[in-house]
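HOLO CASE FILE
Compound: iron/sulfur cluster
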Amino acid sequence: MDPEDRKCCCRSAETAQRDARDLERRIVTVTIDTEHCVICNACESICPEVFSCREDGAVLTATAAEHFTAKRDMIEKAVVHCCVEVISVRYADGTTTDPSARS
Ligand code: SF4
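Model generated. Tokens follow.
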């Protein structure tokens, strides 16, 4: 076998594994407990495509779901930086960032 062919196959396998992992970690829902939001604006500063702060608390933007894949890292960063931990994410594999939902 040509070494280049093997290299190409290995890359394809790695790419397929990475794609599968990405599919499992695809964000399907983002939830904000707006009632307990302290309106610090951190989430909107980190990812304005997904989060919007209003007078009564943070909400998802009208087009938030369109950015769940491309902005996954920023959404996860907002989850971590929310000082009152009211943002949670659910992934396609069923896992969630919400500690109360884990069993
Ligand atoms: S980071 Fe958390 S507390 Fe701050 S505005 Fe966003 S949801 Fe509210």
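CASE NOTES: The pocket of iron/sulfur cluster is lined by residues 32, 37-43, 51, 53, 58, 82-84, 86-87 (CB under 6 Å). The domain at 27-101 is CATH 3.30.70.20 (Alpha-Beta Plaits).
CLOSED: yes
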